Amino acid sequence: MDWSLQTAEQLMAALRAGDVTSVELTEAAIARIERDDKAINAICVPDYDRARTAAREADQARARGEDRPLLGIPVTVKESYNIAGLTTTWGMPQHRDFLPAEDAVQVSRLKAAGAVVLGKTNVPVGLQDIQSFNEIYGTTNNPWDHRRTSGGSSGGSAAALASGFGALSIGSDLAGSLRTPAHFCGIYAHKPTLGLAPTRGMIAPPAPALPVDPDLAVVGPMARTARDLTLLLDVMAGPDPLTLGMAHHLALPPARHERLGDFRVLVVDEHPLIPTGSAVRAGLNRVADALADSGARVERHSPLLPDLAEAATLYAELLFSSQTARFPVEAYEELRTRAAALSADDRSLDAARLRAMVFTHHDWIEANSRRELHRHGWRQFFAEFDAVVCPITPTPAFPHDHRPDPRQRRIDIDGVDYPYFDQLVWAGVATMPGLPATAIPTGLSPEGLPVGVQLIGPMYEDRTPLRLAELLEEKIGGFQAPR
């Protein structure tokens, strides 16, 4: 039997029934990677020897009667996570030989749950792109069309899952880095509530792996089904034992509803700052129709929805102000000069991003205060609704574009060009206030490319969008293997 595209849930059932061993699953995954990854380039740092050892140990543990959540399941890990004995570079050539001394907390949790780590998946330089390419490991191609990107920055993980290279993967998300690759490759991903899963050890080299709480950034699960997302999130979630874990235990509330017809959903297909492409709009409509057919309350407009244009600007300010904190003085001064030359009337996102790069601490405090007002608005919104369904990006996967200056890149939306980074506005809808968001596939575009949407839920109620994702998977279908 070909186990490569089976779900983690199916593999766990087969392992428990004795129908397959972890060694067999691991060898099958390695064989598939060695056969197919030359064209995809998803696995950038293989770790097959230790994976084989872990698989043998998993089988021995099961023979002793042990049964852990992921015991014997082959998985991959985004390159940006520290794994002792493997390089962590974040795609930066100057760190190509950096070897961390210990595993990231999430890698430790994977191993404690019994997972078999096959290796690491590719990323963009510094995790700062919507594509995954760097001079160390090269370019990761979309499994559906090798001329197109798999997304970024968790593009290697998404491509690996779509190709059958392991059943699960862990990634991270600051600007859609879990959700965009999932959307481009036709898989599932979940951006948890900010702070729900600790990030220690998911840090750019050579910085020490300290238990910090990064603003906006999260780590989260990727899978080929919604149920597998929940399985992996339960392994990842919970406070860092070095900080809040000293005093707190996690108790996520259950999903608000168990039936599709009981959900109250706002479907948003328009953003005031960027249009939605026809393929993505069609995916949103498929979800809206499935919800309506099941008896769910589906609205297209609500005065309770926080202002999306203001939110996009605020997100750009918070995101880009953090990106320049460690810039050299000369580069920072150049940015100050460029920002000072902007017209006071220029309210574009490009202008917001440039101004944010030279924010003062006073500026950041003011922006953070406005974020709290948005969070309050979302609390009021989720008193009346259970979820928002909206795009992840305006288009399916776009062709590779490796021009060094991203300002020269453009995103084509139904034949009209827009600034490359403007497509991030949809990622910011959930990221800026720290809300959970689940990326789900909705089918294929007329060009045969995957199209996904995101389900945004209330803060710390991650099980609500995850359950909605499971129910929609049953209704409209889910992952399809690349053709």
Based on the model shown, name its key terms.
483 residues; alpha+beta; Amidase signature (AS) enzymes; eleven-stranded mixed sheet; two-stranded antiparallel sheet; globular; Amidase_dom; hydrolase; amidase activity; Amidase; AS_sf
Question: Could you walk me through the main structural features you see in this protein, from its secondary elements to its overall organization?
Answer:
With 483 residues, the chain is of the alpha+beta class. Among the domains are: 237 residues, Amidase signature (AS) enzymes (Alpha-Beta Complex), CATH 3.90.1300; 67 residues, no CATH class. Helices cover 36% and strands 16% of the residues. It has an eleven-stranded mixed beta sheet with strand order 1-3-2-8-10-9-16-17-13-11-12, with helices on both faces. It has a two-stranded antiparallel sheet with strand order 4-5. It has a two-stranded antiparallel sheet with strand order 6-7. Helix 4 links the parallel strand 2 and strand 3. The radius of gyration is 21 Å and the shape is globular. The two termini are 20 Å apart. The mean pLDDT is 97. Pfam families: Amidase. This is Amidase.
Distance between the termini: 20 Å
The structural class is: alpha+beta
Number of strands: 17
CATH architecture of the domain at 8-244: Alpha-Beta Complex
The CATH class of the domain at 8-244, by name, is: Alpha Beta
Question: Under CATH, the topology of the domain at 8-244 is which?
Answer: Amidase signature (AS) enzymes
Proportion of residues in helical segments = 25-40%
Low-confidence stretches: none
